[in-house]
Amino acid sequence: MPADRGREIISNLRTIFPSSGAVHFSTRGEYGVRLMVELARHYGTGPVSLAEVAEHEALPRPYLEQLVVSLREAGLVTSTRGARGGYQLSREPADIRMGEVVRTLEGPITPMICASEDPSESGQCERTAFCNVNLLWVKVRDAITQALDSMTLADLARPRSTGPFHPAHPALPIHSMNRSGATTTT
Known about the structure:
With about 190 residues, the protein is mainly α. Helix content is about 45%, strand content about 10%.
């Protein structure tokens, strides 16, 4: 492949990545994380309607309806139909890592095409084999993935100890089941 054609392909690939900020998560990621944290706050109390989540988090319900499709397909949430239906986490909040949530919503963590978590993407840059700058982007990717994978939904669902009280987020207890199946509250 001629070098000019390779540069053109790489330039076209780079345009699919966000250009606002050094590292950028989309509204999809932001709203999806907020949805999941709200479901974690209600874990163990039954399904939560998207209307309730939308109201508590000041988010558009139609957008949340799109997000839960991906979250359900990934096995992170389950849905219940009917008058008391809604969505709930499929596992305990402490068992759901934020990296799993963000990857479900955003795709692989990719600060640059040469440092994608997806090996098929990182091989698309013709410079990867000899470019030392790639080492920087891999280190950035690894730092982001480590930060995301070190936190769980339970970490984010706990009430903050400082800051003003927000009426939409009262200090809800976090419910979980112990090994015997009994519900415990923290």
